[in-house]
Specification:
The protein is 33% helix and 28% strand. With 141 residues, it is α/β, with parallel strands linked by helices. It starts with a strand and ends with a strand.
């Protein structure tokens, strides 16, 4: 199996994920608490896929807590700006209606379709990795 993207729609008390492959086929999905047990369950669900990238909406905002925990656990994380995922949601659903599963899917699709090869200046926080393209690659390396 090839690389998968794990789209994450984060909230204060929960995170909804959707795992898609390179052809946008949904491989898994779920909703997890952000407490220790919920986070560990989410991480385990993601780690069922060996070649993975986590795409978290708003790593500098509401998604920061999830992104930091993932990076601390050695995962690679892309910051997907909320405006990009909102655009993808409108195009895929025909309207802007928000639900957590739709948002997680939109985040994953943006990460999959967005060109991430163009280097930009590094973020102000040196612990967050390097900026590439319109998304921020956050990694523990």
């Amino acid at each position: 199996m090839g690389q998968v993207i794990i789209g994450v729609d984060p909230h204060k008390r929960s995170a909804t994920i959707e795992v898609i492959d390179q052809r946008e086929r949904v491989l898994a999905k779920g909703r997890f608490g952000t407490d220790r047990d919920g986070y560990q369950a989410m991480l385990a669900a993601g780690r069922e896929h060996t070649d993975r990238i986590w795409a978290v909406e708003g790593c500098n905002g509401i998604g920061r807590h999830v992104a930091q925990r993932l990076v601390a656990d050695g995962e690679t994380v892309l910051d997907v700006p909320a405006k990009l995922s909102a655009r993808a949601r409108v195009f895929s659903t025909g309207q802007g209606r928000k639900t957590d599963p739709v948002d997680a899917h939109s985040v994953a699709v943006v990460a999959l379709r967005t060109e991430l090869r163009t280097n930009q200046s590094p973020p102000s926080d040196p612990h967050l990795g390097r900026a590439v393209g319109p998304a921020l690659v956050v990694s523990s390396a």
